[in-house]
Amino acid sequence: MFDFITSWIAAGGAFAVAALMFLENVFPPIPSELVMPLAGYNAATGEARPVLTLIAGLIGSVAGAWIWYEIGRRLGRDRLMRLVDRYGRWLTLSCDDVERALGWFERHGAAAIFFGRMIPTVRTLISVPAGLQHMGLIKFLTYTTAGSLIWVGGLFGAGYLLEAQYERVQVWLNPVTNGVIAVIVALYLWRVFRGKGRRQRD
């Protein structure tokens, strides 16, 4: 699986990395924790240009965050809650998740956007309250880009450094990659069939 993913990223180049990071922010089962290290590994082997690959990952990540910002801004709180209540299970989101993100944003403001981009599970949701509260787009994109650069750059750098140690880790790379994907898919399916996203009704 490791070889398959890295080959796919190599074939699609920067566009594939940007697309995967965009989808990672929209569709939960695609993890940046897997995409960017593998993109960094490919860049280290000469399959892709390091700077271009990193920028592509950053653009995809910011674009995905902007989508959720626009959803929050355009729908408003009540309509968004009704949407999450009805369809949130497919995105493994609940109304309580949105409420917690709103509370965090109200307490910390712009800092929540910056630091939230570096916290798994929070990274996607934190864009929603920024849109709901009509945070300025330039301000939102600035803090989102700064936080995303640290997160994406760190993952990319880890994968880039991995290439130098490939001889030591090649034996377990495929099993670990397969295991990560299996766990992510299993957790997603469990949350979907558990019905996460619906309010408890009397």
TrEMBL record:
InterPro entries according to UniProt: DedA_domain, VTT_dom
Q: Which Pfam families match?
A: VTT_dom
Q: How does it sit in the membrane?
A: Multi-pass membrane protein
Annotated Gene Ontology cellular components are: plasma membrane
Q: Which gene encodes it?
A: yqjA
Boundaries of each VTT domain copy? 30-160
Keywords for this protein: Cell membrane, Membrane, Transmembrane, Transmembrane helix
The organism named in the record is: Limimaricola soesokkakensis
Question: By what name is this protein known?
Answer: Inner membrane protein YqjA
- Any stretches that span the bilayer, and where are they? 7-30, 50-69, 140-160, 172-193
Localization of this protein: Cell membrane
